[in-house]
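help with this:

***
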Amino acid sequence: MRLMHYPIGHITGWRLFFNDPLMVHTFIHQIFPVGIKWKDWREQKGELFQAIHL
């Protein structure tokens, strides 16, 4: 069974874990190959952390 009909061996994303997640802003300044999209936890879960901050 293939999920969402992706070809076998197709990679849709990577998950990176940092020792200090608050230092993620230093990683986004790296040069990525064309077609690579970067999203970090602040973009994906930002509303949650803003609500907790209130």
